[in-house]
Design a protein that fits this description.
single chain; alpha+beta; N-terminal domain of TfIIb; 3-stranded antiparallel beta sheet; about 25% strand; elongated; metal-binding
């Protein structure tokens, strides 16, 4: 499957659908070239690996007591460093990120994840290396 976004639930956006078509086309082109015996050279790519899901701050009754800080909103895939603002409490206090490494938040404040108790997902940027790839003919 391919998930391309962000896109609100129940909304069809032309720009997101265009991105989806392009990535599916690239995938199908790769499969065709691979099946034709094309050799792909070694490569390295940066990816984001999920570290953990982060919930909203809650009171003892499980009610949300803070919202995503305005400086974090719409900053998916951007670096989040120790001391950067994460949440803003309903009484105006800022809750800062306290971590020992830079992370890259994703799925920030997405409506579909409220019921899953997820404010965002912390990811780390890593590099993956692939050896050359070629269909072995039997």
């Amino acid at each position: 499957g391919v998930e391309v976004g962000p896109q609100p639930q129940g909304v069809a956006r032309a720009d997101v659908l265009d991105k989806m078509r392009k990535i599916v086309k690239h995938g199908l082109d790769f499969v065709q070239l691979f099946n034709e015996g094309k050799e792909f050279p070694p490569c390295t790519i940066e990816v984001f690996k999920i570290m953990e899901k982060v919930d909203y701050p809650r009171n003892k009754n499980g009610e949300i007591i803070a919202i995503i800080h305005p400086k974090l909103q719409d900053q998916d895939w951007q670096p989040l460093k120790n001391g950067d603002p994460l949440f803003l409490t309903l009484d105006g206090k800022v809750i800062l990120y306290q971590g020992n490494c830079t992370v890259y938040p994703t799925f920030i404040n997405e409506a579909a994840y409220y019921e899953k108790k997820q404010a965002f997902v912390k990811t780390e940027k890593i590099k993956l290396t692939a050896k050359h790839l070629r269909l072995s003919v039997s």
